[in-house]
Fold:
Amino acid sequence: MHNEVLKEHARNIRKMIIEMIHAANSGHPGGALSAADVMTYLYFEKMDITKENVDSRERDRFILSKGHASAALYATLKEKGLLDEDIHSFRKIDSKLQGHPSMQYLAGVDMTTGSLGQGSSAAVGMALADKLDQNGHHVYCLLGDGESEEGLVWEAMMAAHHYGLSDLTYILDFNHLQIDGRIEDVIDPTPFKEKFEAFGLATFECDGHDFDSIREAFKKASEVSDRPQVIIAHTIKGKGVSFMEDQASWHGSAPNDEEYMKAIEELDREDA
Amino acid sequence: MKHETRVAYGEALAELAKENKDIIALDADLSKSTKTAEIKKVASERHINCGIAEADMMGIAAGLAASGKIPFASSFAVFAAGRAFEIIRNSICYPKLNVKICATHAGLSVGEDGATHQAIEDIALMRSLPNMKVFVASDYHETKALIRHVSKIKGPCYVRMQRGKSEDIYDEDTVFDFYKPKELKKGKDIALIATGLMTQYALKAADILAKEGIDASVYEVVCLKPLADKEIREIIKSHRINFTIEEHSIIGGLYGAVAEAAIAEPSNPVYPIGVKDTFGESGKAEEVLKKYGLDEEGIIKAIKEKI
Structure:
């Protein structure tokens, strides 16, 4: 797919993220915006998910282990035509768009997440099932960099490596920020590359906001046939909205009306 | 005859695996103790050892269930229900995934390993989770039937088993209704409502009491959640004094469940016989049970204090 087309989808997804979080007056814009390009690439180029197979297991699956970026998942599903719900119901009573993704409500949500680290283990279970069934499907699991402070992430990677789950790719949204500040200041989980490699994962890196770079990393990862992979996506928290970029304070707060207008204006600009 | 319920579990698992290719066993480095290793005789590729990582095991089980598999995840109860609690909550119970948590080595009867390994709060933890069904097995034949039953029903289940042997109460022809209290002895004075290993001790206590002129009914409760509230209330209504007996804390386990059901429509009193909000200790299983008042003598003593 042309990068220009992907960029247009990513722009729409970012606008929906802001729209939803503003309407809910609650949510997590920073980490949703940082993940938007990788998720655009996965849903519009890499994964074989369609309206016809979304209800089925016979397709690639995606786990948003950093479930607080739920707005990014709902917006991506909406942009892809896989979500009927009004995105403005996000986080409101009676909505299927729960604060954190809930698989029992929506066919497009492949795993219930929100409690950090747990998606990384569920991904192992899914990839194991695919391997037992020899169905050739792939599992993608998006992790937060702060999330990697959960020991469960490393337990999961140890198991993924042990069982040689080559149809499992983790993506690390390396935006350097968590609620209490810079990850390096809170409880430094770096260096990632060396740790992932030590755990036996084939490790690649990319600019998480450049589609050529993302594509290249996924291409290299898909050539690995004997072990799970991880792609460290270097990203900027709040990417696309200048006043939200690289600010820990935008991890979990909603824009007011004025900030909302300004954000949409910026995202609407030709060069955004 | 005496048998280990966990042996029944391993045998049932292997039989089920033969019948259904979606049955998968997961373990956390205790497969010879929990008996999940039995499945290897039928399908070695369907035994997933997760290593000493119970939280990861539950997450992996959730992923397998989300893929249409029927995972049986096992460890000692203290780790299965305790260590992995929040993964069970968020990744299994909330999405209502079809995971069967079959925990062994529950209760004080773990014995020598001591308090760190004697789960006395696992029923309370598992009962508190929405969508979770909670079962406690008492003997070999019941466990076999129970494992087969949970493999056929959809949704999260917790099955509690002990480490040691228990007396056979049933035989292979017994037809079980796990959702109703099973009347094992009909009496008219008092009712002993027991679960798991304590069922055989309740029967022994009732025999001794009978010789002293106290006519006790004995019931076994296998399914603690959903509890048969109506039937439990009927039992309580028809006995002057009632006792629950469990090798679990008296907080949140069988007593908790029965008391919750009873208080809605109060009739006769119900008293707890169980672990009195304390940790256990090392010793032979029988010695520990005796010290904590959970052998037949202790049970009779607790009963006599109330009648």
About this structure: The interface with chain A takes residues 24, 45-46, 48, 50-51, 53, 55-56, 58-69, 71, 86-87, 90-91, 94-96 of chain B (CB under 8 Å). The two ends of chain B are 33 Å apart (CA to CA). Chain B is about 40% helix and 20% strand.
